[in-house]
Target: EAL domain-containing protein
Amino acid sequence: MELENGLRKALEFNQLMLYYQPQCSLTTGEIVGMEALIRWDHPEHGFVPPSEFIPLAEETGLIVPIGKWVLREACRQRKNWSKAGIADFPIAVNVSVRQFEDDHFIEYIAAVLEEMDLDAGLLELEITESIMQNLQRSSYILHQLEGMGVLLAIDDFGTGYSSLSYLNRLPIQKIKIDKSFVQEVPFLASQEMLVKTIIDMGLNLNYIVIAEGIETEHQLEFLRQNECAVGQGYLFTKPLPADQIERYLERNK
Ligand code: G
Ligand code: G
Ligand code: MN
Ligand code: NA
Model:
């Protein structure tokens, strides 16, 4: 209850902020995307990790207004970067199933894109496999988003419930290999094989495959050798506030 009230206040009193983590081409090193990740800077307790408050936000439904704030803030930041001449990589926003199931989800996205005067192709939504539990409706929403020009990615791929036969029929461009698989490289041969298999499947089905949670040169090399196109992780940089990301971009031009 205390955390819940705190979260309501956080939204009201601007204690939420977005950090950003680049997605890098594993062939050219170029930055090809940027994931927005929420942070809660609590006035007394300092940073509360999203793993603590996102589940609560989902249970209480607060994820809907929080998710709206995230979308708007991420689009505002992307637009500011465009105005500053910062290369046109899309901004990726995490979307909970609960938000996705909200009747006004599509409307809200359209309204934010219009308000910020942002090209829909600069917004990518990261959804999880759990949306497939309500396949008919999800498919309808995803096709609407595709029609608008919004990019779609499956997050935490391999950890959920997706049925490959359905995945293939959804208008998704990208799959993100969950960091739990990547982090077992090189410690578990079976996980290595799994990562390799996901990459091959992704390539064969024409997805952009991105690996998350890359922390070591060894993991990077393994992913490159197996033709994984894009990577994200502490090896490049941990998530950073917008001003520090701008410096990172400047250094990595
Ligand atoms: O940033 P961090 O690694 O601590 O994120 C932990 C979890 O919180 C991840 O599963 C991530 O997807 C989720 N998360 C981060 N930001 C958002 C957000 O804006 N919306 C939703 N729904 N989840 C988020
Ligand atoms: O669920 P999602 O993939 O959106 O969550 C991404 C989470 O992974 C964020 O909490 C982010 O801070 C975290 N993260 C990003 N890069 C790394 C990494 O290299 N190692 C670890 N352990 N976590 C990472
Ligand atoms: Mn994500
Ligand atoms: Na993930």
The chain has a mean pLDDT of 95. The pocket of guanosine-5'-monophosphate (ligand 1) is lined by residues 37-38, 49-51, 54, 67, 70, 94, 96, 239 (CB under 6 Å). The first strand starts at residue 16 and ends at 25.
